[in-house]
User: What shape does this take?
Amino acid sequence: MEVRFGGYPVLDEIFSDGLFGKFFDGSNARTSQPAVDVNESNEAFEVIAEVPGVAKDDLTVSVEQNILNISGKRTLPPADGKRRIVVELSHSDVSRKFRLPASADVDAITTEYANGILKITIPKKAQSKVKNIPIN
Assistant: This one.
């Protein structure tokens, strides 16, 4: 069912399938985007993502059709029979995607993870060198 709010396109988008529609139906309620820094040098691109509370074994880095995908699952520690009174710790999935440039060497990507920081290094492909061909 499509919901209309007085013919105002912005309100229509927000309340029908936009921000609030997705919030209330729960489809995006448990996914967050990690904060990232993206750096570039002559040799490589570097993505540094903050993923506090996500265990190394719960992180996945993949590339499909030149899209770098970072995903993970942040879970609450078990209650061990205790009654939770206040729950403010985040226990959401994390996901972030980046389109890689054609110069990225996806077969040589490396990752490092320590203290909630994921570092992804994406080397650049060797640039084609100009080769002069002698004319006979």
The first helix runs from residue 9 to 15. The two ends are 74 Å apart (CA to CA). The CA atoms of residues 76 and 89 lie 7 Å apart. Confidence is low (pLDDT under 50) at residues 1-29.
